[in-house]
C-alpha cells in the first residue's frame, strides 16, 4: 500500500510527501493517502506474520520509503483479557491494550517512531515537539537512540516524573510558562525559522499520526484477525482516536479482516473536554477551553482533530464522554486492582469512561470491548497518593499480628496452618506455589 501523497482532509488537494501539515488552499489538515494495496490479502498477511514483533510488522501500511527500522523497538504490546474487570462492570468481554509496555511507557513511542523515520528520510537533523509530557519523553528517548539532538517544549507545570524521565535522555527541555496550546503556538513559530528541525507533531504531523494506526492493526491481529465490537479510547488532540478507525478501515479494505469499524467511544477529562462538549451539543465545532485536570497528558484545550473525533463517534454509534478527576482516580484503582495494570491519569479517564458506559447500559451484554490504556501510572504517581493506607509497624511479629490478626490459631486457614516454626524454616504452606 505505497503512500502516494499528502491530501487535505477538507478539500482533497494533494501535495508531495514532504514536511508539510496544512493545506495552502483552505488551511485544512493534511494526511497521508495511499495507493490501493498491491498484494492480495493472503500475501499481505503472510508478510505481516513474518515481520518483527514490533509495530514495523505493519510497514506495508506506513508512509516510509526505506526499510522501517528503529533503534528503540516499539509496539506489539500485550492485549490482556480483563475478566475480573468485566465481571465488576457487568460486561462479557473486555480487553486492555496495554501501552505501558512501550519503551517510554506510553503509546507516543509509536507516533514518534514513524515521525523520526520519515524525518531521517527527508534529511532533518534535529527532532523536536510540543508536548503534554509523554511525547517529550518519547522524542527524547528515540532521538537519543538515533543519535540525534532533541528539543522538547512543554508546559511548565507538568508532573515531575515526566520531566525527570525526559531529561535523563539528554534532550533540551524547554518549560514554557503557559498551557499546551501556548506551547503548540510557539513551536509552530519556531518550526518556521528552523528548517533543519523536525517537529514530530507539527511539520511531521501527517506521518506522526500514521503511527497510531498500528494500535488498531495489533488489536485485530491479537484478537485472531477479528474486529472488536467497541473501542474506548482517550482523546487529547483526537489524533489517536481518529487514526484507530483509519487503521481498522485499512485492514477491512485490504481484505485482512471482515466486518465494520467498531463503535468508537471517546474519553475526556471533564476539566478539558471540548470534544465531549461538542458531541453533547450535536455539533462538530469544538470551542477551545483552558484545561484544568489531573489528566495532563490529555490537556489540549484546542484539539486539532476534535471535529473528526466527533464525526467518528456519531458515525459509528458511539459517544464522547467526560469524567471528573475523582472518577479518574477511581478508574486507575479499578484497573490496577482487577488486572494488575497500573495506568496514568489518561488510562484512568478511559477506564472511568468505560465504567460510565457500562453503568448507563450503552454496552450490549454480548459485546467484545477493547480499552486503550495508553500510559504508565508511574508517570502520574500523585494521582494515587492518599488513596490507600500504609501500615507502619516495628520489626516485631507481635506488632504484625496486632494489625493483621490471624483468623484463629489452629483453624484451617493459611494463617492458622502457619505455625511460626514452619515459617521460620521457609516451609511452603498448603496451596502455595513453590
Ligand atoms: C498523547 C496521549 C493521548 C492521546 O493523544 P491524541 O493527541 O488524542 O492523539 C492519549 N494517552 C496518552 C497517555 C497520551 O500521552
Ligand atoms: Zn484544503
Overall CATH architecture of one domain? 3-Layer(aba) Sandwich
Overall pLDDT metric = 93
- Strand content bin: 5-15%
Main pleated sheet: 6 strands, mixed
What is the β-strand count? 13
Task: Fill in the CATH topology of one domain.
Answer: Rossmann fold
- How many H/I helices? 16
User: Uncertain spans, ≥5 residues at pLDDT below 50?
Assistant: 415-434
Oligomer: single chain
Main features:
disordered C terminus, Rossmann fold, 16 helices, binds zinc ion, binds pyridoxal-5'-phosphate, 434 residues
Describe what you observe in this structure.
This is Threonine synthase. Its cofactor is pyridoxal 5'-phosphate. Its EC number is 4.2.3.1. It comes from Solirubrobacter phytolaccae. The protein is an alpha/beta fold. Helices cover 37% and strands 15% of the residues. Among the domains are: 199 residues, Rossmann fold (3-Layer(aba) Sandwich), CATH 3.40.50.1100; 99 residues, Rossmann fold. Strands 4-5-13-10-11-12 form a 6-stranded mixed β-sheet, sandwiched between helices. α9 links the parallel β10 and β11. The longest helix has 16 residues. The C terminus is likely disordered. The site of zinc ion (ZN) has 8 residues, from loops. Pyridoxal-5'-phosphate binds next to α9.
Short description:
The chain is 37% helix and 15% strand. The protein has 434 residues and is of the alpha/beta class. Helix 4 links the parallel strand 6 and strand 7.
Describe the secondary structure blueprint for this structure.
Elements: E1 3-8, E2 14-15, E3 30-34, H1 41-49, E4 79-81, H2 83-89, E5 93-98, H3 108-121, E6 126-130, H4 134-146, E7 150-155, H5 160-167, E8 172-176, H6 180-193, E9 197-199, H7 205-210, H8 213-222, E10 230-234, H9 239-253, E11 263-269, H10 274-281, H11 306-315, E12 319-323, H12 325-339, H13 345-360, E13 368-373, H14 397-403, H15 414-417, H16 420-424
Parallel strand pairs: 5-13, 6-7, 6-9, 7-8, 10-11, 10-13, 11-12
Antiparallel strand pairs: 1-2, 1-3, 4-5
Helix pairs in contact: 3-4, 4-5, 8-9, 9-11, 10-11, 12-13
This protein binds pyridoxal-5'-phosphate (PLP) and zinc ion (ZN).
Modified residues (N6-(pyridoxal phosphate)lysine): 108
Cofactor: pyridoxal 5'-phosphate
Domain Tryptophan synthase beta chain-like PALP: 74-375
Amino acid at each position: 500500500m505505497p503512500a502516494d501523497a499528502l491530501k487535505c482532509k477538507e478539500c482533497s488537494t494533494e501535495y508531495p510527501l514532504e514536511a508539510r501539515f496544512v493545506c495552502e488552499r483552505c488551511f485544512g489538515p493534511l494526511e497521508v493517502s495511499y495507493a490501493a494495496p498491491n498484494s492480495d490479502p493472503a500475501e499481505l498477511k503472510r508478510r505481516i506474520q513474518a515481520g518483527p514483533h514490533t509495530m514495523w510488522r505493519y510497514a506495508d501500511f506506513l508512509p516510509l520509503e526505506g526499510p522501517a527500522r528503529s533503534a528503540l523497538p516499539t509496539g506489539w504490546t500485550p492485549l490482556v483479557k480483563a475478566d475480573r474487570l468485566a465481571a465488576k462492570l457487568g460486561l462479557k468481554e473486555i480487553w486492555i491494550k496495554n501501552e505501558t509496555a512501550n519503551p517510554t511507557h506510553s503509546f507516543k513511542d509509536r507516533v514518534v517512531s514513524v515521525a523520526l523515520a520519515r524525518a531521517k528520510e527527508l534529511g532533518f537533523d534535529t527532532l523536536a515537539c510540543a508536548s503534554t509530557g509523554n511525547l517529550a519523553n518519547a522524542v527524547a528517548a528515540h532521538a537519543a537512540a538515533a543519535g540525534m539532538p532533541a528539543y522538547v517544549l512543554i508546559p511548565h507545570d507538568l508532573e515531575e516524573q515526566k520531566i525527570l524521565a525526559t531529561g535523563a535522555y539528554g534532550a533540551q527541555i524547554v518549560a514554557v510558562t503557559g498551557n499546551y496550546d501556548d506551547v503548540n503556538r510557539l513551536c509552530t513559530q519556531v518550526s518556521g525559522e528552523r528548517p533543519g528541525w523536525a517537529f514530530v507533531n507539527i511539520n511531521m504531523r501527517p506521518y506522526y499520526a500514521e503511527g497510531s494506526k498500528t494500535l488498531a492493526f495489533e488489536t485485530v491481529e491479537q484478537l485472531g484477525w477479528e474486529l472488536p465490537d467497541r473501542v474506548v479510547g482517550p482523546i487529547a488532540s483526537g489524533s489517536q482516536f481518529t487514526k484507530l478507525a483509519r487503521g481498522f478501515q485499512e485492514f477491512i479494505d485490504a481484505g485482512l479482516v471482515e466486518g465494520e469499524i467498531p463503535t468508537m467511544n471517546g474519553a475526556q477529562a471533564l476539566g478539558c473536554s471540548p470534544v465531549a462538549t461538542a458531541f453533547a451539543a450535536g455539533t462538530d465545532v469544538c470551542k477551545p477551553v483552558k484545561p484544568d485536570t489531573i489528566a495532563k497528558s490529555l490537556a489540549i484545550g484546542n484539539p486539532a482533530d476534535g471535529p473528526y473525533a466527533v464525526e467518528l463517534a456519531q458515525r459509528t454509534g458511539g459517544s464522547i464522554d467526560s469524567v471528573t478527576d475523582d472518577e479518574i482516580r477511581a478508574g486507575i484503582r479499578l484497573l490496577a486492582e482487577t488486572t494488575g495494570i497500573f495506568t496514568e491519569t489518561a488510562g484512568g479517564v478511559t477506564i472511568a469512561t468505560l465504567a460510565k458506559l457500562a453503568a448507563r447500559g450503552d454496552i450490549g451484554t454480548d459485546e467484545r470491548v477493547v480499552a486503550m490504556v495508553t500510559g504508565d501510572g508511574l508517570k502520574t504517581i500523585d494521582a494515587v497518593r492518599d488513596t490507600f493506607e500504609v501500615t507502619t509497624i516495628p520489626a516485631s511479629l507481635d506488632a504484625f499480628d496486632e494489625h493483621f490478626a490471624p483468623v484463629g490459631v489452629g483453624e484451617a486457614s493459611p494463617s492458622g496452618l502457619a505455625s511460626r516454626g514452619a515459617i521460620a524454616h521457609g516451609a511452603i504452606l498448603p496451596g502455595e506455589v513453590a
